Structures
1.
Amino acid sequence: MNSHEFRIGDNEPVVASCEPTPDALSVKVGENTYEFLPLGEGRFKVMIDGRPKVIAAKEYKGVYYVDIDSVLLEVREPSEDGFAAGGDSAHGEKDKIYAPMPGKVVKVLVEIGQEVTEKQPMVIVEAMKMENRVDSKAAGIVKAVNFKAGDQVDTETPIIELEIAEE
């Protein structure tokens, strides 16, 4: 059985342990136990609060991306300063739109010169057989669209660049 301790922010640590069973992966988080049934290609089915959820996981360059019903988590070892920022927040740039995880652009929802608002959908990226909508982090005008539908993207190259509106 593998056991790991997780701490999110200043919260108390949570212990999670995993144990393979013949048909599933039994995961205990705190006092709760979940049975992860494999669906293939890094995807699992699990019952949470009596409802089935599909969970997808993928490792890329030492970072684990976990998608739980279109909620994306990025899991990595803490950095030297104790923080493990992820996805868009790791870049800290409001004027650039990045893929939340490596994948394929399904649809670009904006064009150069278009005025956009904060939280406006900008692009759809498919990763682990799930579509992820990526929204704008600020209002502005689209100044560059660096990828088109069908292109492969990573988390390091901006898909869209904005000229941020003056506040």
2.
Amino acid sequence: MAKGNRQIAEYFGVMQARLDTALGSSLAMDHPVAKGDEHEVNWAKMLDEILPKRYQVDKAFVIDHTGASSDEIDLVIFDRQYSPLVMKAESRLYVPAEAVYAALEVKQELNAAHVNYAGEKVRSVRRLARTSASFVDARGLITKPREPEPVLGGLLTARCDWVKQPPKNLKKALAKHDTDQRLDLGCTLESFGWAWTGTGSTGELAYGTREQALVWFVLRLMAKLQTFGTVPALDYRIWGQSLR
């Protein structure tokens, strides 16, 4: 292993151990809501520390220009560069659908019920309407509107309920999803990082080792985000029509 790769593996190994300890400590809490909140906070802190600063991570509702809203999503990865209409009311955050890169659910255990639950939460985001407008970049060039990239869906957990053949059981659960429910990637710290491509019985599951669960997941998440570039510019004219 090259020196740079070894250093990256060691760095993420420390982060994985630290996150695993934090999540393990929250498991001792008696109150299920408090326990869930702690898990979300710890995963959010980890992603915020690792991801480039252009990305923001927070618990939020996703909304569109028609007035529709998603379910509340545990971790939304979003960008405010061209979509600054991020609103906060009391303790709730509302993010326009155009600004969203990914919707991630956080659960304590990986199992079929939580895979299905996360798929439904992601569906509530993907069904929202998104606009796209042209804009002038730093060079003075007009960039034409482009089709928004599909929102990434994922599931993050500390533990795995499947004692035997976790990958086989995970693949079986993921294969039941349609396109709107699809979970693209995830991480279970005690088992593996994973990525899913395709839908139904033709879908394929890739996964890493327990020792590299976190780095496996993070590098694939960043690779996905890299292919998206920047989120489309929100079309304020369309959003403004709802104010008439």
